[in-house]
C-alpha cells in the first residue's frame, strides 16, 4: 500500500469505509452505518472528508419509489491503497524484452508465466465439482489481492467469481492479452467454460468470471 496515502487518510474508520466501498458498486451513508455500526453523523463526516481529499465521489442511485438516493463510491485515486503485484519494473522488463527479442516477446513471456501458474493451480485445486473448485479458486485469488468472492446463482448474472480489485491493473491496461490468459486460467482450473466481464465505474473496478454449474453442479471431465 501507498504509505503516503495511508498517512493522509489517517483514521482506521476511514480505511474501513474505503474497504467497504471497494467491495460494492457504491453505498449510502445509511448502508455504511448498518455495516460499520457507527453513528450517521460519524460516517457522514468521514465520507465528506474523504470526498474533499479526492478519494470519494457521489452519484444519485435511482429508487423504485421516491427521489434518488445519494451514494458514495471510490475514485481512481484509491487504487494505490490496495495490493499491487505489478509495478513499473514489470512493465519495463516486458518492454525491454520487446526491444531485444521483437514485438511478440512480451506476449510470449506472459503466455509462459500464465501457463506455469495455471499448471500449478491445477495441481493444487480442491473440489469434486465446479462449485467447490470455484470456492477454492476464489479463496486463492482473494489471498493474492483480487478481493474475490464466489457468488451463487442467486447473484444477478448467475454463478460467478466476482473480483473487486486487480493488483495487476497496469499490466492489464498495457497488455490486453492478460484478460484472455486470466479467462483461460479460470477455465483450466474450474474445468468448464468461463465468460469474463470487466466493468469500471469511477474508482470502482469489478471483474466477474461467469460459468455454468451444470444440471447437478458437477463436471465429470475435470
Compact description:
Helix content is 50%, strand content 16%. It is α+β, with helices and mostly antiparallel strands.
Describe the fold and architecture.
The longest helix is centred in the middle third of the chain and has 20 residues, at 105-124. The chain folds into 2 domains: 3-75, Winged helix-like DNA-binding domain superfamily/Winged helix DNA-binding domain (Arc Repressor Mutant, subunit A), CATH 1.10.10; 88-211, 2-Layer Sandwich (Muramoyl-pentapeptide Carboxypeptidase, domain 2), CATH 3.30.1380. It is globular. The two termini are 38 Å apart. It has helices at 3-9, 12-22, 29-36, 40-52, 88-101, 105-124, 130-146, 169-174, 177-190; strands at 56-61, 69-74, 148-151, 160-163, 194-201, 204-211. Helix content is 50%, strand content 16%.
Amino acid at each position: 500500500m501507498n504509505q503516503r496515502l495511508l498517512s493522509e487518510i489517517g483514521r482506521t474508520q476511514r480505511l474501513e469505509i474505503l474497504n467497504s466501498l471497494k467491495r460494492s458498486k457504491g453505498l449510502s451513508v445509511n448502508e455504511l452505518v448498518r455495516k460499520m455500526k457507527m453513528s450517521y453523523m460519524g460516517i457522514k463526516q468521514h465520507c465528506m472528508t474523504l470526498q474533499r481529499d479526492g478519494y470519494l465521489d457521489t452519484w444519485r442511485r435511482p429508487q423504485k419509489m421516491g427521489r434518488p438516493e445519494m451514494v458514495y463510491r471510490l475514485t481512481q485515486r484509491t487504487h494505490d491503497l490496495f495490493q499491487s503485484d505489478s509495478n513499473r519494473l514489470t512493465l519495463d522488463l516486458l518492454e525491454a524484452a520487446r526491444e531485444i527479442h521483437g514485438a511478440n516477446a512480451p506476449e510470449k513471456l506472459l503466455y509462459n508465466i500464465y501457463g506455469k501458474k495455471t499448471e500449478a493451480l491445477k495441481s493444487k485445486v480442491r473440489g469434486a465439482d465446479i462449485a467447490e473448485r470455484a470456492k477454492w479458486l476464489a479463496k486463492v485469488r482473494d489471498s493474492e489481492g483480487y478481493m474475490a468472492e464466489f457468488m451463487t446463482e442467486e447473484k444477478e448474472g448467475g454463478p460467478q467469481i466476482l473480483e473487486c480489485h486487480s493488483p495487476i491493473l497496469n499490466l492489464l491496461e498495457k497488455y490486453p492479452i492478460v484478460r484472455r490468459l486470466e479467462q483461460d486460467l479460470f477455465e483450466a482450473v474450474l474445468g468448464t467454460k468461463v465468460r469474463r466481464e470487466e466493468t469500471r465505474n469511477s474508482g470502482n473496478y469489478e471483474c466477474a468470471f461467469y460459468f455454468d454449474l451444470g444440471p447437478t453442479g458437477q463436471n465429470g471431465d475435470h
